[in-house]
Amino acid sequence: MSTNQRTDWARRQPPTGGSNFELYAWFFMRVSGLFLVLLATGHMFIMHVFNDTLNLDYEFVAARWDTPYWRTFDWLLLALSLLHGTNGLRIVLHDNISNQNLRKISLSVLYFVSVMFFILGTYVLIAFVSEV
User: Fold this and answer.
1) What contacts 24+ positions apart, CB below 8 Å, involve 73-78?
2) Are 125 and 71 in contact (CB under 8 A)?
3) pLDDT tens digits for the chain (132 residues)?
């Protein structure tokens, strides 16, 4: 190795051939990040600026979730944040775990936990009843 060559140990080798999954995952991270900034900012202003945080209780959520618009808004925030975070953690695990078996186990646990949170969050949004 000559002195002019530089080794960048922090970068993994880009995939060669095969599908375009990594390209689509990269593009998804940019688009979902943009939507998440808008959704999270809107959520923060609605919940913490326009409304007093002392009034955030069951009745507030029940009144808010009586309309399909707010349920859809909150479901989009849930779905995009879980998908965005799962994809980001998938990349981190792929970059930092060199053992193939440990990487597969870690990714399997990540996918399982993400799907469970998605199912639970979606169930809460769909099955929520405003009258107890």
Assistant:
1) 73/39, 73/42, 73/43, 74/43, 74/125, 75/121, 75/122, 75/125, 76/35, 76/39, 77/36, 77/39, 77/40, 77/43, 78/118, 78/121, 78/122, 78/125
2) yes
3) 555 555 555 566 665 667 889 899 999 999 999 999 999 999 999 888 888 878 788 888 888 889 999 999 999 999 999 999 999 999 999 999 999 999 999 999 999 999 999 999 999 999 988 776
* Residue of 43, 36, 11 whose CA lies nearest to 87: 36
- The pTM of this model reads 0.80
Could you give all domains of the chain from N- to C-terminal order, each with its CATH number?
23-127 (1.20.1300.10)
Residue 11 has φ and ψ, to the nearest 5°, of: -105, 135
Q: Would you say the C-alpha torsion 88, 89, 92, 95 has a positive or negative sign?
A: negative
Nearest CA among 82, 79, 71, 73 for reference residue 128:
71
